[in-house]
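Appendix C reproduces, verbatim, an entry submitted by the partner laboratory led by Prof. M.T., so that reviewers can inspect both the input and the predicted structure.
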Amino acid sequence: METETATRWLTDAEQCAWRTHLDVSRLLMHQLEKDLQPFGLTNNDYEILVNLSESEGHRMRMSDLATATLQSKSRLSHQITRMETAGLVRRVNCESDRRGLYAVLTDEGMETMRKVAPHHVASVREHFIDLLTPEALTALHASLTPVAEHLRGHRGKP
């Protein structure tokens, strides 16, 4: 016979915090996506460009990029195909592993980053950073770090 454990329902305060977090996450990502639209980019496009622009040689193995962006390899492949068509990235065979591929930022992709990044940072400031005091940002960082670390530890686990 299985032992049932009692459900630990959220308190009113916990429910309020949780739903506010969900609202902010959805609304903020929607706004950031909207602010990238004039540049023909999605949040996923921008995240890939950021990862590639910050990596050594402006390249990443496709499997590492999938992990970094929390995308399946299949979904990332479709995303990279669209970005290749736009001239932002290209795929290059991995010399040490014939099955492996790199996503590489093109010159056009890097120029797009240089053009878009200031607008994106302004959007992040307007809709998030500048609405909080430095103390609130410090507290938010301290509060969310254990959650991020916990979730990073669960990546790839069933």
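The chain has a mean pLDDT of 93. Additional entries are available on request from the coordinating office.
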